[in-house]
Write a structure and sequence with these properties.
This protein is α/β, with parallel strands linked by helices. 34% of the residues lie in helices and 24% in strands. Helix 3 (110-134) crosses helix 4. The N and C termini lie far apart (52 Å).
């Protein structure tokens, strides 16, 4: 009898959770937003999931990009955080982007990493254009937020803060862009002429190849980063053992403050790269979601 009662209770909880989510949001999965050639020269379908609050108001939209070092990960990694954000009134777009093909994993070099960053930025740009050009969604074109975890955060940061030819020149001075083909370098000029302006960035354990990419009047930013992160530096240093030097959240926020850009840094007092990975709270970051909500609502 007791077992039956437990089963009935569990079923009720699951049904309630499902109905509550259906009440708050409309979720459309696996929308094909682009077809592009990957590093293998193969055509790849790129998909996104869209979470829309059931409201008549025009909503801020958040584009989330998963982590995984450009080698692994998928849009489903952000399901829990997306369900949370949509309940706060945000439209959320989780997207897959082109990753480094499996056969390259044993022969990684700077050119492969540079290409993966350029491709990921291009995919984010395509997802934004797909959603906003369609005019089918009740969203505010002036409140576009980009963000992600680890490699997804790194992509979002560079997309948000590369806005001029001077920025491209700065990027070209990074070791990983030294041997990038002229064709790909020319292709990157599209990021200096974004069709839709970015308003804010969510940076979860990400970094920039140069803090000087940030300029006065550019997007506001909130970051969550572990002080002892051994994958992506909290300050500056080697990134995930690749030899690529990047500048983490502490340097980014010092730069933003010096330029009077609205910003907030949540420092987690541990050495776990994934302490708030994919928006999942931990004992050292138990109120991070609330702090981010408040910042994004400003």
């Amino acid at each position: 009898m007791r077992l039956k009662l437990q089963i009935i209770t569990l079923v009720f909880i699951l049904l309630y959770a499902s109905n509550a989510q259906a009440y708050f949001a409309k979720i459309t999965s696996n929308i094909i937003y682009a077809e592009k050639i990957n590093q293998n020269g193969e055509l790849e379908q790129l998909k996104l999931d869209l979470y829309q609050p059931k409201t008549d108001a025009k909503n801020k939209i958040i584009y989330l990009m998963h982590g995984g070092g450009f080698l692994h990960g998928e849009k489903e990694d952000f399901i829990k955080y997306s369900n949370y954000l949509v309940k706060q009134g945000f439209t959320v777009c989780n997207l897959n982007y082109r990753l480094i093909p499996d056969e390259y994993h044993e022969q990684l070099n700077y050119d492969i990493y540079a290409t993966s960053l350029v491709f990921a930025m291009d995919d984010l740009d395509s997802a934004i254009r797909y959603i906003h050009d369609s005019n089918n969604y009740n969203i505010d074109n002036h409140e576009i937020i980009v963000g992600g975890f680890s490699a997804g955060a790194l992509t979002s940061l560079h997309y948000a803060y590369i806005n001029s030819v001077d920025d491209l020149f700065l990027l070209s001075e990074s070791d990983i862009f030294t041997n990038l083909s002229k064709e790909k370098q020319s292709f990157m000029s599209k990021f200096t002429e974004k069709k839709y302006e970015i308003s804010k960035v969510i940076n979860i354990a990400g970094s920039l190849l140069s803090p000087y990419l940030i300029h006065e009047g550019e997007p506001s930013i909130i970051s969550v980063h572990s002080v002892g992160d051994e994958v992506v530096p909290y300050e500056s240093g080697d990134t995930d053992g690749t030899g690529i030097i990047s500048y983490g959240s502490k340097v980014i926020h010092k730069t933003a403050s010096n330029l009077s850009i609205m910003n907030k840094l949540i420092t987690i007092s541990d050495d776990d790269h994934g302490s708030f990975g994919n928006g999942i709270e931990s004992e050292n970051c138990h109120n991070c979601r609330t702090i981010i909500d408040e910042f994004l609502s400003q």
